[in-house]
From TrEMBL:
Record's protein name: Dissimilatory sulfite reductase beta subunit
Signal sequence segment: none
Gene3D superfamilies found in the cross-reference section: 3.30.70.20, 3.30.70.3340, Sulfite Reductase Hemoprotein, domain 1
Top-rank taxon, per record: Archaea
GO molecular function, one term: 4 iron, 4 sulfur cluster binding
Known EC number: 1.8.99.1, 1.8.99.3
Keyword field contains Chloroplast: no
Domain 4Fe-4S ferredoxin-type: from-to ranges: 248-277
Key words of the record: 4Fe-4S, Iron, Iron-sulfur, Metal-binding, Oxidoreductase
One of the protein's GO biological processes: sulfur compound metabolic process
Length: 377
């Protein structure tokens, strides 16, 4: 079925809530004219891709790394816009990986954009066998359920891993890192090559007085509904019950609790031991169909301490994971595929991570990608 392309609507028309939004009307003319006609591409160093159309037209995309959570000042945004207007096609694109992409129509202009953004202190890189991004949630900046400060962890990791983004240091394949401030995983996805997730490290303890604000006033109400603070628990670790005096009590079963903080999402009145707050590290996930297809990661490190501002324990763990993978992976082999080849037990041995009940990873076959499905058909 063909696709009809129309001109960009008037600004006032964009306020009409038309669904689905005709995104093609927002494309630069050269991209709109070549929609569906791109036949080839080539790389010009890390961070610049040339797209070639069957019509002979070419466009160049320049990927620029942004600060954690893509937070930049209005002044910086204005400078980006000036660069896009002067050397590009007057547009920029924010990516899922929290980078910024400029688009232009010649290699000379692409190199000029690279030069200008690097003058502003922003690196150009990604794509190919490199670090594509380190994606972060907002954490304490705007979130009420954050356990750790994901943006500052992300910044420290970028400080150490930037050469993998710019291509100064090589990787076997693409690498995507996600940092989430709590188990809600708003940092991006759990299916990443390396995923760092903040968690409390212990079961919550209800504040004996304030928790009453999250419970019904009388035990009689429990006959009609389960309070949200208990209903949200995914493992049934929170029990609410009627007391002899007619009030409502609450208990947390520490043997069942997985410290996911879902209860914290609906009620602020839980106490946690700050000394036990940390992060878990997952490895080997991906959403692409390369190799064995999409897969979830293994939890290899159940808890690491969080010690700002250097976060040395987290940096050391991530560097160790990357070093083992770099040293022994085949060209083009993603971290998860490398783990599949040598086995999760052997991978954890090479990391020097002991097995406990908290990271007892089981071997799983993820061989269900679209390519394999088509083969089976």
């Amino acid at each position: 079925m063909g696709m009809s392309l129309t001109v960009t609507p008037e600004p006032r028309d964009r306020m009409n809530k038309r669904l689905p939004m005709p995104f093609s009307t927002q494309l630069p003319e050269i991209i709109r004219n070549n929609y569906g006609k791109w036949v080839d591409r080539r790389f010009h160093g890390n961070g610049i891709i040339e797209h070639i159309s069957e019509t002979g037209d070419r466009v160049f995309t320049i990927k620029v790394g942004l600060p954690p959570n893509s937070r930049v000042s209005v002044d910086t945004l204005e400078k980006f816009i000036e660069i896009a207007d002067k050397y590009g096609l007057g547009v920029v694109r924010a990516t899922r990986g929290m980078n910024l992409e400029f688009i232009t129509d010649s290699l000379d202009k692409a190199l000029k954009i690279k030069e200008e953004v690097e003058k502003l202190g922003f690196p150009v890189g990604g794509w190919g066998a490199s670090l594509w991004h380190i994606t972060s949630c907002t954490a304490y900046l705007t979130c009420t359920t954050a356990v750790v400060d994901a943006p500052s962890i992300t910044q420290v990791l970028y400080n150490h891993l930037k050469p993998f983004f710019t291509g100064e240091e090589k990787l076997p394949a693409k690498l995507m890192i996600f940092v989430a401030g709590c188990p809600n995983i708003c940092g991006g996805t759990l299916a990443g090559d390396i995923v760092i997730v903040g968690h409390y490290g212990q079961a919550p303890r209800p504040d004996p007085e304030k928790i009453k604000f999250c419970l019904p006033a009388s035990a009689e109400a429990l006959k009609r509904a389960v309070p949200d603070v208990a209903a949200v628990c995914p493992v049934g670790a929170i029990k609410v019950f009627g007391k002899p005096d007619g009030s409502v009590g609450i208990e947390v079963d520490e043997r069942k609790c997985i410290a996911c903080s879902r209860c914290k999402n609906v009620c602020d009145y839980f106490d946690w031991d700050p000394a036990k707050i940390g992060v878990a590290v997952f490895v080997g996930g991906k959403t692409s169909n390369t190799g064995t297809g999409p897969r979830l990661p293994y939890k290899v490190i159940p808890w690491l301490p969080v010690n700002p501002p250097e976060y040395r324990e987290i940096v050391a763990a991530v560097r160790k994971i990357i070093d083992v993978w770099r040293r022994e992976a085949k060209p083009g082999e993603r971290l998860g595929d490398f783990i599949d080849r040598i086995g999760i037990d052997e991978f954890m041995n090479r990391l020097g991570v002991p097995r406990t009940r908290h990271n007892r990873c089981e071997e799983i076959s993820w061989n269900f990608g679209v390519r394999q499905f088509i083969t089976y058909m």
